Amino acid sequence: MTKMTKMTTQVNGSRVPKKRRVHKDTPSSTRTKTSDFSYGLPMPIKLLPLKMFTFKPVLVTETSTRFSSESANANANANANANSKANGNANSRAQANANAKAIDARIPRTRAYHKSLKEYNLKHNDYRRYIQFLVIVGPDPHVILFKPNDQEMIPGGALDATESELDGLKRLWRELFHAGSISDHQIDDEVQYKDVVGQWYRPDLSDELYPYRTKYVNSYKEHIKTYLVGLKKPLQITYPHIFKNCIMIDLYDIYDKKDPVVSSIPFMLSRFSFTSD
């Protein structure tokens, strides 16, 4: 009865609940709003119009870009073996085949790619780190993809064994979108790494990927990180010729793609909002 008296007040002989006090110095913006569903979502990402960008394939040699030291060494060894086995036209054909294999080693979902991954795992006794760039342009969201064969791929590349992730991000951005001709300071002026929107784990030397680490696999062959990239200014993108085509695809047209990572791009971006204002 005493507890009830503390919670009520006497008005005309009847008890009514006391009103909860609201502090006048509390701003309304700090009060909890149950109907505010935007709480915790990231700020809208401004998209630059597609017409502000130009795309041009550039012939890339190992002197202008290396993609990774392992790929460069593999290419050099392949060329040396080709030179020692044949002369004249036969030597040229062997060297061309060696170059083609080195190029295929940088393109996912190819036999040469899995072979280079196996060599990396055996050499370093560890999984390989791989970085992907999700670049979105406007006004309607379009994603930039490479198309080296009949399937699309997210622009990306492997990190060196001793390379930090930040250094690898800058190196790969330089090699994939500027053919190696841009400084770190210029990269900072044009690129902003928004967030890691996806992580994938390759359990074996196949195209199968897991979106999580499972206790049934002791050692993974590759760890793939997908970064959402924001562009601060228009770019003249010069991409390596080995990827053949640089295409822009509307997010709504990606669902039916065969590559599981590419087809999941709309889901990875679903928590973000975009604006072209």
Automatic annotation (TrEMBL):
Q: Which Pfam families match?
A: NUDIX_2
The GO molecular function terms of this record are:
mRNA binding
**An annotated GO BP:** mRNA 3'-end processing
Stretch list, region Disordered: 1-36, 71-97
Mark the transmembrane ranges. none
How is this protein annotated for GO cellular component? mRNA cleavage factor complex
Give start-end positions of Polar residues composition bias: 1-13, 27-36
Q: Which InterPro entries match?
A: Cleav_polyA_spec_factor_su5 (IPR016706)
Stated name of the protein: CYFA0S21e00892g1_1
